[in-house]
Amino acid sequence: MQLNPWFSTTLKAAGLATALAAVSACQPAPESGYQAPTAAPFEQTEAPWWDDAVFYQIWPRSFYDTSGDGHGDFNGMTAKLPYLSELGIDAIWLTPMFEAPSYHGYDFTEFYQVESDYGTMADFERFLQQAEERGIRVILDLVINHISREHQWFQRSAQRIEPYSDYFIWRESLPETGKGWGHAWSDNDMPEAVWHFDETRGEYYYAAFGATQPDLNLEHPDVIEEMKRMAKFWLDKGVDGFRLDAVRFVIERGPSGQADLPETIDYWKDFNAFVKSVNPEAYLVGEAWVDIPVAAKYWGEGKGLDQGFDFEFGYIVLDMLQQGLATEAQFGTMSQQSGQAEDGALHPLAQNVQRRLESGAPLAFFTPFLTNHDQDRVGFQLQESQAKAKQAAALLFSSPGTKYIYYGEEIGMTQQQSGHDVYKRAPMLWDQSHQAGFTQAELSWVQQKELFTQAFDPWWPDFLAQQLAAGDRTVAAQRAQPDSLWQLHRLLIAMQKQRPEMRLAGSYQVQSPQQGILTVTRELGEQRTVFVLNLAGEMADIATLLAEHSSLSVSWGFDLDGSLLASDGLLILQSR
Prior knowledge:
- The structure is a single chain.
- The chain is of the alpha/beta class.
- The protein is 26% helix and 14% strand.
- It contains 16 helices and 19 strands.
- The chain has helices at 60-63, 74-79, 81-87, 121-133, 152-158, 221-237, 262-278, 292-295, 311-321, 348-357, 378-381, 386-398, 460-470, 475-479, 485-498, 543-548, and strands at residues 54-58, 91-94, 137-142, 170-171, 195-198, 203-206, 241-244, 283-286, 307-310, 366-368, 403-406, 507-514, 517-524, 527-534, 540-541, 553-556, 560-561, 564-565, 570-574.
- It is globular.
- The relative contact order is 0.13.
């Protein structure tokens, strides 16, 4: 075998004239193999720009600070656009960047103003313009389910000022315990978890995500229209669409109807129709933190959301790589989390793709990812193993569909501990300089105690020192290493763009050709890519497998010594 050059500096934008979704077997699998069945292709006349794209999720406060106040900002993101271009990113998802009282921004006080910590509207517009010049699209995190208790709408509603009186969901008394009220994503039966007393009005208001974030009444015509006006404002600014927060919960109809109601699907159909009337190429992706059959409802027979996140996929990968220790859903209702296959059953990865195909939505609807800002980081869950992080990345990019990467995932960023969300959202590690090159300020935002309602021990300095002492945890270090996780991400993104079998049209096959070895094969016509992962916990001799694929070349083979694949090793074979 020979080592193929793996990266071209003249990448063409990803896109297909026809998007076909099929999971098929090219040859019978051995007894130890798992294989997804053949499914009818999904066809459309022209693939939208987001099909097979690679998105990069940025937590703006943590990406890069240019003003010296310890907070990432718009100018910082603009300054790092060359980095994202080098990595090969197609689009950016910005977590909330509207004015809000919290550090996280999921409780807007203003719909038409940017977060002042991040800069000015002119700074944001400059960022959009320069991203567009680089061919990078930008979507915003849009929270329609709830807003801040400090928003003027809520204050006027509490005072019963019309027309705001019914902009939120009110009731005179707290429901009885045991009558079904509680968080819609859990089985708790505590009404005080979602109903909160307001002294001004003397009534209880519904707020599924906490007292500071009251749910809007999205059956009120004025509220519905205001959400559309707000979406148009940002689309007119040049954003390319929205990641929609908490899509399952926009309509609630009592204790047995807090999520996934038909009226909720209808709401998103109407919203999508409006968004497409403003910009036919605008994109909507929904956070439906739930099993695939329920998430698929948000496709709405082609009239709902354009895509939805496949939460199940990340659970399967991380559960498999850490032997059953994957973290639980925080705001979701997940039942399919096992990384182990039952005797005679499909491998969980093949089951995942099969469930997508059988869901009623097209394969193109689902976007696989590993983790996001609400989940413990991949590096943390895999106990800082760069080798296992490489396997996780390979499994992500081998799965069909649009991909999402959480900032820092490409270098294996970890976190201090589980618990408060701040640990999952810490500053990016750029280099070995002060504050890892994130800011020139003495204190980064995670050290500014006034931002938090919860007291913290001073965890960041020691954690940062540990990460820098490792020597290989920064972007600068990994860019200089040919076998780094960062270099692997660059390769995988390039493969997604350059190789047709890696896109939706390519077949998907999962096998275990020998004990402890997993292969994922993507194939289209004469083009084939085979990912080989050693999950055995010890070095494995894969001479038979290599002989079987002797016509393929090695695109990633740093863990291969002759025919011996290292423990937790990764090998990528490809047709020429």
